[in-house]
Design brief:
mainly alpha, single chain
């Protein structure tokens, strides 16, 4: 529901990004790969911001899978959460 209708292969994109998140999370535990995976995760988190904006504009409710969500109010939680994830990833994998 977060992906616009014009983008093909939505299900495949969801599975691929989920797999990449898990793989990059594991790579954070490997010292030789932690800096690279940290930067990739930061870019990934930044790329999720437009998807969150789209989802809020379409009033998507994730828990129920409907279009009756909180709308733009959702961004008051989601955007700061993305920023926390970015800072947390930077501090734990790149700066250290």
């Amino acid at each position: 529901m977060m992906i616009p209708k014009i983008i093909p292969f939505k299900t495949e994109i969801i599975y691929l990004t989920g797999f990449l998140e898990i793989l990059l999370g594991i790579c954070l535990l490997i010292p030789k790969l932690s800096v690279y995976s940290g930067w990739i995760l930061i870019v990934f988190f930044l790329l999720l911001i437009p998807a969150n904006i789209y989802a809020s504009m379409k009033h998507i409710d994730y828990q129920k899978g409907t279009f009756y969500g909180n709308g733009l109010a959702y961004l008051w939680i989601r955007i700061p959460l993305q920023i926390i994830f970015i800072v947390w990833t930077y501090l734990s994998s790149i700066k250290s």
